[in-house]
Design brief:
single chain; 228 residues; 2 domains; 11% strand; hydrolase activity; HAD family hydrolase; S-2-haloacid_dehalogenase; HAD-SF_hydro_IA; HAD-like_sf
Length: 228
């Protein structure tokens, strides 16, 4: 196997996810609405609303991540009787997407890596490109859900990335933290997957990854597979 490019998910893989911001928003909803629901129940409802919209969004029905986030948050506020403004709360999320904290091991990976990196992210162009510029990361190309009008695990993003890098499926590895979007999505189109499992989660996926790592800089060991 000759690896000539890495396909990397971004949020949760290179930079921190938005879990802390989501918790803060759920706390505000609970305090404002005086609901008896727990924070877990509020967050769970929000996630279910978002997931339903997410799964239906592709092709002619595609809507950007910002739009889906705002609609799902508005539905959540309504469900729990909160009078908060979804647009104001959403700004907290957008600020994180544009300036997320980066993992130390990601900085080390980008410092040492010599293999072309393609970012594949279920996010809007502006947010991920702003975040990449903020951390001054060197990447070959960025392919987003907005570019292909669909979200991982659907195949369009992976197929677009293969066309851009002009490589075969056997010459790339896709790396991500999501078993459903990243591992299953890549494997469904015949690309080998690497699951980054920083918190040693129990595997509960449908498709088992080809490789598992705990930190992104462990990916550097795959450079030995590169042929000049």
């Amino acid at each position: 196997m000759s690896i000539k490019a890495f396909f990397l998910d971004f949020y949760g893989t290179v930079v921190h996810e938005d879990g802390e911001i989501i918790s803060k928003i759920c706390n505000q909803i609970k305090d404002n609405s005086k609901t008896e629901a727990t924070l877990t129940e509020i967050g769970g409802f929000w996630w279910k609303e978002f997931s339903n919209l997410f799964q239906e969004s592709y092709g002619e029905t595609f809507r950007t991540q910002r739009v889906l986030e705002t609609i799902s948050l508005k539905n959540t506020l309504s469900n729990f009787g909160s009078t908060l403004d979804e647009n104001i709360l959403s700004e907290l999320m957008y600020n994180h997407w544009m300036q997320p904290s980066i993992f130390d091991d990601s900085l080390e990976f980008f410092k040492q890596n010599n293999v072309p990196v393609y970012i594949l992210s279920n996010i809007d162009n502006f947010d991920v490109n702003t975040a990449i510029a903020y951390h001054k990361l060197k990447v070959k190309e960025v392919i987003t859900s907005e570019d292909v009008q669909s979200y991982k695990p659907r195949p369009e993003m992976f197929e677009k990335a293969l066309k851009l890098c002009n490589l075969s499926k056997d010459e790339v590895l896709h790396v991500g933290d999501s078993l459903s979007s990243d591992v299953s999505g890549a494997m469904n189109v015949g690309i080998k997957s690497v699951w980054i499992n920083r918190n040693n989660k129990e595997f509960k996926g449908k498709d088992e990854p080809n490789y598992t790592i705990n930190k992104l800089d462990e990916l550097l060991k795959f450079e030995m597979l590169v042929k000049n």
